[in-house]
């Protein structure tokens, strides 16, 4: 049985993207630290990679990064951090560091008595609002499949006509009526299931029982999904209250409590309260729906602006979900226009990232370009979360840009009265849309606007982040890949193996000063046949150092010379016997020298590409460590190849 240093659980309400993005982020963070991790995912398909009791017992700590209910009691006695799934995606390094080295991370006890202080307790169990959100999203995650299934089946029934399920209509069709009936049953379960699983997250099995009954009352009395939410929290906390009231009963009566006392009293209490608050809840629900419907007619631009901003603000988070839940609630009442704007606003951001990498490929890393292309597929299927990494890269600029595109797509959808009767699926449900080609056009226009703006911002950012390096032509910018980019991709500009071989590498070079080293390199270049006049090369080395030092940092210098006596481009590498003084960025001596020889006829383009490739390699600490630890010429040569 494998032992894992850290175990983690991830989960998001929809269980589609956030869950697995947080999983990958945590696994990458653990890999960088050289520790083992196992991540249990709570996705739409259920729990995958579930922990065994042995794995839990042997782990040093537990990270829960989830916005849905995860069985926490099994981690009794373990150091535990409980945060949102967004933190798992955006702050994986901090979470791994904290669970490994922060002695203040509290120990979780299922009895509710933690060894942590009150301030630490908040970190352990999550903030009050995070807990409320987790409870709510547990209901949403169980409700969504029902809404999608019911909405799509109901929408398909309209293929035979809008009144095809009505036996009194001339459009009546038996198959359409069956689909409409089945779809209606699924949609009608929306409120009871939402209510039940909110209550289940709070009050476990007892909460589930009370939640179903309370949810049925909420649905029957017309309170809509707002009533389902209120009823869920009501039923859950009634279950908690009963547990505390009957805590003193003998353990031998536990069976009686769970089967008789809790269900009977709980249903009575929560059901009665829900019955009497249904009247004002129904009025609130009716008023809200009427207001939204009136906005579709009187203020479609304002409505589209609000929906666009909400959907793009947190890419599947609580604000996005609020808009989506409203859309599904209106679908259940036969309003198919509101969902058109919501879906358009959710589809536009990932498509925008794809257009952005097409508009300005050089501004993005190869990994980002691949993600952008994949987002064409994700966006087309209504999965907004693919845009999150792009939003996180520069949130203050990129998120408002996503909002602009989403708002444009939503506004145009509302203005042209497009209806989308299915709550999910993206372009898969185009046959159900009343104006499919127009709807796609509006979404693409919104995505193109955001994509163009994203590419401009990314282009400026990449120029700002470019590294300044010394060259024979003076200081020039050399674009650098982020540190997360694999080292082997850093040589994409030009193949360094073209200008280096084993003979070009010298080990244990014994020199006492920078000038001695430059003289050694000049003689070395003539010995290898790259230059015909070592004195001329030496003078060019010195002249270059007078312009500005080629000392870098971390004990590395990159001297170079360009002269008519140099016959072909070459890279020379020298590892010194002892460090020598050299003017460097970090004021530390140099013991590794990477030198370039440049023919006089070279206009600088080839040399800059080789220098760019080397500079990118030196951006990675793991490469420098490997270079420093290399003992043979073959090891060094393989690193640069």
Description:
It contains 22 helices and 12 strands. The chain is an alpha/beta fold. The strands form 3 sheets. It has a 5-stranded mixed sheet with strand order 3-2-1-4-5. Strands 8, 9, 10, 11 and 12 form a 5-stranded mixed sheet that branches. A hairpin with a 2-residue loop joins strand 6 and strand 7 (474-478). Helix 6 (128-157) packs parallel to helix 12, helix 11 (300-313) packs across helix 13 and helix 11 runs antiparallel to helix 16. The radius of gyration is 32 Å and the shape is elongated.
Layout of helices and strands:
Blueprint: E1 6-11, H1 18-33, E2 37-43, E3 46-48, H2 53-58, E4 61-66, E5 80-83, H3 85-90, H4 92-101, H5 118-125, H6 128-157, H7 174-188, H8 190-220, H9 224-245, H10 254-298, H11 300-313, H12 318-332, H13 338-359, H14 366-380, H15 388-393, H16 395-415, H17 436-464, E6 467-471, E7 474-478, E8 505-509, H18 514-527, H19 534-547, E9 556-557, E10 560-563, E11 570-580, E12 590-599, H20 605-617, H21 621-629, H22 633-640
Parallel strand pairs: 1-2, 1-4, 4-5, 8-11, 9-12, 10-12
Antiparallel strand pairs: 2-3, 6-7, 11-12
Helix pairs in contact: 1-4, 6-7, 6-8, 6-12, 8-9, 8-10, 9-10, 11-12, 11-13, 11-16, 12-13, 13-14, 13-16, 13-17, 16-17, 18-19
């Amino acid at each position: 049985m494998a032992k894992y240093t850290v175990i983690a659980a991830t989960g998001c309400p929809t269980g589609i993207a956030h869950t697995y993005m947080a999983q990958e982020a945590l696994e990458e963070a653990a890999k960088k630290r050289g520790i083992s991790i196992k991540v249990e995912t709570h996705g739409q398909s259920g729990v995958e990679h579930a922990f065994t009791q042995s794995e839990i017992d042997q782990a040093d700590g537990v990270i829960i990064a989830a916005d849905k209910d995860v069985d926490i009691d099994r981690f009794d006695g373990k150091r535990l951090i409980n945060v949102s799934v967004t933190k798992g995606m955006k702050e994986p390094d901090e979470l791994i560091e904290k669970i490994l080295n922060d002695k203040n991370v509290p120990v979780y006890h299922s009895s509710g008595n933690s060894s942590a202080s009150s301030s630490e307790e908040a970190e352990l169990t999550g903030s009050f609002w995070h807990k409320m959100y987790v409870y709510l999203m547990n209901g949403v995650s169980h409700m969504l499949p029902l809404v999608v299934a019911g909405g799509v089946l109901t929408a398909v029934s309209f293929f035979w006509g809008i009144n095809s399920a009505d036996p009194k209509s001339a459009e009546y069709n038996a198959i359409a009526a069956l689909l409409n009936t089945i779809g209606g049953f699924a949609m009608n379960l929306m409120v009871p299931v939402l209510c039940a699983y909110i209550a289940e997250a709070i009050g476990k099995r007892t909460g589930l029982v009370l939640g179903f009954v309370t949810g049925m009352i909420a649905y029957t009395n017309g309170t809509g999904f707002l009533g389902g939410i209120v009823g869920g929290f009501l039923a859950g906390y009634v279950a908690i209250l009963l547990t505390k009231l009957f805590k003193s009963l003998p353990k031998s009566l536990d069976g009686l409590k769970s089967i008789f006392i809790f269900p009977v009293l709980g249903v009575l209490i929560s059901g009665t309260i829900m019955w009497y608050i249904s009247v004002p809840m129904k009025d609130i629900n009716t008023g809200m729906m009427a207001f939204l419907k009136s906005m579709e007619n009187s203020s479609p631009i304002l409505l589209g602006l609000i929906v666009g901003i909400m959907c793009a603000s947190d890419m599947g988070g609580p604000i996005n979900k609020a808009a989506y839940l409203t859309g599904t609630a209106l679908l259940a009442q036969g309003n198919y226009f509101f969902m058109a704007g919501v879906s358009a606003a959710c589809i536009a951001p990932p498509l925008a990232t794809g257009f952005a990498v097409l508009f300005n490929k050089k501004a993005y890393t190869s990994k980002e370009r691949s993600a952008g292309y994949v987002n064409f597929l994700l966006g087309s299927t209504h999965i907004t979360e693919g845009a999150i990494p792009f939003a996180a890269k520069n949130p203050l600029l990129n998120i408002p840009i996503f909002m602009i595109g989403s708002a444009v797509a939503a506004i145009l959808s509302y203005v042209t009265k497009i209806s989308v009767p299915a709550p999910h699926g993206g372009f898969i449900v185009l046959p159900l849309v009343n104006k499919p080609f127009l709807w796609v056009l509006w979404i693409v226009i919104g995505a193109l606007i955001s994509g163009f703006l994203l590419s401009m911002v990314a282009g400026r950012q990449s120029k700002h982040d470019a590294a300044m390096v010394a060259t024979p032509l003076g200081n020039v910018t050399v674009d650098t890949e982020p540190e997360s980019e694999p080292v082997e991709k850093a040589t994409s500009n030009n193949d360094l193996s073209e200008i280096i071989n084993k003979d070009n590498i010298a080990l244990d070079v014994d020199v006492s000063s920078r000038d001695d080293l430059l003289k050694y390199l000049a003689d070395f270049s003539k010995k290898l046949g790259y230059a015909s006049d070592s004195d001329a090369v030496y003078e060019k080395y010195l002249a270059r150092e007078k312009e500005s030092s080629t000392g870098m940092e971390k004990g590395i210098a990159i001297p170079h010379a360009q002269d008519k006596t140099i016959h072909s481009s070459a890279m020379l590498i020298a590892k010194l016997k002892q460090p020598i003084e050299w003017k460097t960025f970090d004021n530390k001596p140099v013991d590794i020298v990477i030198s370039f020889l440049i023919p006089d006829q070279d206009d600088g383009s080839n040399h800059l590409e080789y220098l760019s490739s080397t500079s990118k390699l030196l951006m990675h600490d793991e490469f420098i460590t490997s270079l420093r630890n290399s003992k043979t010429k073959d090891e060094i040569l393989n690193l640069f190849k």
